[in-house]
Amino acid sequence: MAEQGAFLTPTLVTYAEMNDWPGYLPPESAKKNSVVLEAGIRSLKIASEAGVTICFGTDLLGPLGSAQTREFSIRSKVLSSVDLLRTATVNPARMLRVEDKLGQIKPGFVADLLILESNPLEDITILDSPDKHLFAVMKEGRVYHSRWSKLPVDAPIPVFFIQ
């Protein structure tokens, strides 16, 4: 994959979430989900060590959508916090061929930012609880969500935004 320049966007949280809903799966399927999740984590480590570019994404929709950020904690078993942040920033920008304007905080780049109460490099799991650790969301330089009185919201939340 690395030699071909392919991008990997695994979705591991789906397996964890299905197992967390009692009765959602028959016992034998829940056990298989656990096996698949562990294999996925090992595969992620192998891909990372092989130099494959890994991106962030999930297939969670509806009521499970709020669990998307749990993917960071799952991946943190084999990826560093720096690498995890890259999977959600610079790597997807490269995949979409917009690395000249997205994915980094640099002059001239689009201001898409999360403002957090603490440093995710020190504890990536803060991203699992945005209601607790997220202070503000900026997209294209506009504030869509803010818990700071001195940083007022200046744009309506788009329909696709998940709270």
Automatic annotation (TrEMBL):
This is Amidohydrolase-related domain-containing protein. Gene3D superfamilies: Metal-dependent hydrolases. It comes from the Eukaryota. PANTHER family: ALPHA-D-RIBOSE 1-METHYLPHOSPHONATE 5-TRIPHOSPHATE DIPHOSPHATASE. GO terms for molecular function: hydrolase activity, acting on carbon-nitrogen (but not peptide) bonds. Signal peptide: none annotated. InterPro entries: Amidohydro-rel, Metal-dep_hydrolase_composite, Metal_Hydrolase, Metallo-dep_Hydrolase. Residues 1-142 form the Amidohydrolase-related domain.
